[in-house]
Amino acid sequence: MRFVAEVVVQLKPVVNVPRGLVVRDGLRRLGFDGVHGVRVGKHLEIELDADSDSACRDLVSAMCERLLRNPVIEDYSITAVTAAAGATA
User: Fold this and answer.
1) Which residue, 24, 38, 75, 89, is most buried by CB atoms nearer than 10 A?
2) Contact yes or no for 1/47 (Cβ under 8 A)
3) Residue 14: is its pLDDT beyond 80?
4) pLDDT per residue as tens digits for the range 16-29
5) Residue 89 lies in a domain
6) Which domain holds residue 18?
7) 9 with 72: CB under 8 angstroms?
8) Residue 10 near residue 79, CB atoms below 8 Å
9) Is residue 59, in this structure, part of any structural domain at all?
10) Does a structural domain hold residue 56?
């Protein structure tokens, strides 16, 4: 079955986020004074074949561990796994 997994990769909380500071400062200059922090990350949408939702999550976790994130400075979360449009069991 074909699935689509959505993954978010972000810097760990202890890592300084220069891009987030730039975005935060830009928002403040635009009048959004209530913005205190911004974290910038990566959003990935991966379409893949797997036997089940659980197997899909396992495959995507392995991809994140081996390539998609730097384990020293980044964390990841799989935010959604859905059957791909037109996928059949």
Assistant:
1) 24
2) no
3) yes
4) 889 999 999 999 99
5) no
6) 2-83
7) no
8) no
9) yes
10) yes
